[in-house]
Amino acid sequence: MCKHILNVQVSIRAPCCKQWFDCAECHAEKETHKLAKTIEMAFLCKKCKKAFRKDMTTYEESDEFCPHCDNHYVLEAKAPRAVVGVEGEDARVDARMLKDDRVKAKENHSIFTMDPDEEAALLDF
Ligand SMILES: [Zn+2]
Ligand SMILES: [Zn+2]
Ligand SMILES: [Zn+2]
């Protein structure tokens, strides 16, 4: 059970090890390697148990519904900066940077929210 996200509604598939995790921080705790970046993230709805994919470069709030059962999976991250699949840095390192005001301002965002910078970096492949 994920202790980083309140009432987690989806699992994500790590593109690096092809395993399902509730969030990027769960991956960081279980695995010793870094979570690989991906443009298209695979999700598994915990309600209807069906998988679906989202393009993370065009991700917005209206996308936070399971396409199969309309389960709303807005994820209120307990810890800020738990951005899924777009951070090159280890999530454990990010968790220690909570004093940063810039990070604090993002606290209420979905963990899937991306910075324009990060989006640009993804598109820069
Ligand atoms: Zn992995
Ligand atoms: Zn977690
Ligand atoms: Zn569903």
TrEMBL record:
Signal peptide: none annotated. Keywords: Metal-binding, Zinc, Zinc-finger. PANTHER family: CHY-TYPE DOMAIN-CONTAINING PROTEIN, ZINC FINGER PROTEIN. It comes from Collybiopsis confluens. InterPro entries: Mito_Tim_assembly_helper (IPR052604), Znf_CHY (IPR008913), Znf_CHY_sf (IPR037274). Residues 1-71 form the CHY-type domain. It comes from the Eukaryota. This is CHY-type domain-containing protein. GO terms for molecular function: zinc ion binding. GO terms for biological process: protein import into mitochondrial intermembrane space. GO terms for cellular component: mitochondrial intermembrane space.
